[in-house]
Specification:
The chain has 12 helices and no strands. By secondary structure, it is mostly helical. The chain has one domain. Helix 2 packs across helix 6. The longest helix has about 40 residues. The protein is globular and about 55 Å long.
Length: about 280
């Protein structure tokens, strides 16, 4: 009886400790997101409105430049007049990944003073950057809605797939942030190298051009580009107005889970060494 009572007590204490840890990490996560939000828009006249205006202005400039260039290509999924919608969806989606990974990569290094003084779950910091990027993405989606209204693109029942899209992409970004933040602790050069990777990735992803403009071998290679898969998934919901296929859902989910799994394993395997390098 005493043994059973002790075992029960141990389980109760373990459960209580786990719940306390989760609540603490959740509180820290919310506080960090709030802090980043205030810092980003502090002393900004436009404030949150800039998150809406920025993708709109980028879309206008890029539409003016690339509409002429796109005359050589075509898409059988939507009318040519809707090219600005095609453009802004790609821009906003890629920006989400870019922001979350670029900020998440340096999150552990930036949190060094706190990590040296307080025992805290280290993964909170790269995860927070992905969550904060998701908040900004939500504001940027207002710009997408404005453009859709302007070009009279009606909403459809396919909008119910947006939460799935956000889940897949957020998992992917969290995984990348965990992986990159680990590399950045040991190899500072990765911070500079990633900016080059992002530029190359931008041009290799059909954001401002049609995939049909690419040679056949490169079109086939795009199938292995996770951001192409995510962007096409989002475009199918908003622009093509088609229901994402089971295959598209499985591919995006697999990309998200694979990224999260690899990032988490690499992060957990090396996090004890962080204190020696930050």
């Amino acid at each position: 009886m005493a043994f059973k009572k002790g075992l029960t007590t141990h389980k109760s204490v373990s459960s209580s400790t786990w719940n306390t840890g989760v609540k603490r990490d959740w509180f820290i996560l919310k506080e960090l997101v709030t802090k980043d939000f205030k810092l980003k828009y502090r002393r900004s006249i436009l404030g949150v409105a800039w998150s809406v205006l920025n993708p709109l202005l980028m879309m206008i400039v890029m539409a003016i430049v690339f509409t002429h260039m796109m005359r050589g290509g075509s898409s059988d999924k939507f009318p040519a007049i809707l090219f600005p919608v095609y453009l802004i969806i790609g821009n906003v989606t890629f920006a989400f990944m870019n922001d979350s990974t670029s900020q998440g990569m340096t999150s552990i290094i930036s949190a060094a003073p706190l990590l040296k003084k307080v025992k805290i779950e280290r993964a909170v910091f790269p995860v927070e950057k992905a969550v904060f990027a998701l908040v900004n993405f939500a504001f940027s989606c207002i710009a997408i809605v404005i453009v859709m209204i302007f070009f009279q693109v009606p909403p459809t029942l396919n909008f119910i797939f947006i939460p799935f899209f956000l889940l897949y992409l957020t998992l992917f970004c969290i995984g990348l942030s965990l992986f990159l933040s680990t590399l950045a602790v040991f190899f500072r050069d990765i911070i500079h190298l990633w900016s080059v990777v992002i530029i190359a990735w931008t041009y290799l992803t059909p954001i401002f051009y049609y995939p049909s403009l690419l040679p056949d071998w490169l079109q086939n290679l795009e199938k292995f580009n996770p951001m192409y898969q995510f962007i096409e998934y989002f475009r199918s919901i908003l622009l093509y107005q088609t229901t994402p296929s089971l295959k598209a859902n499985l591919i995006c989910l697999a990309c998200g889970l694979a990224s999260l799994g690899i990032g988490y394993l690499v992060f957990k395997k090396n996090e004890r060494k962080f204190i020696l390098f930050i």
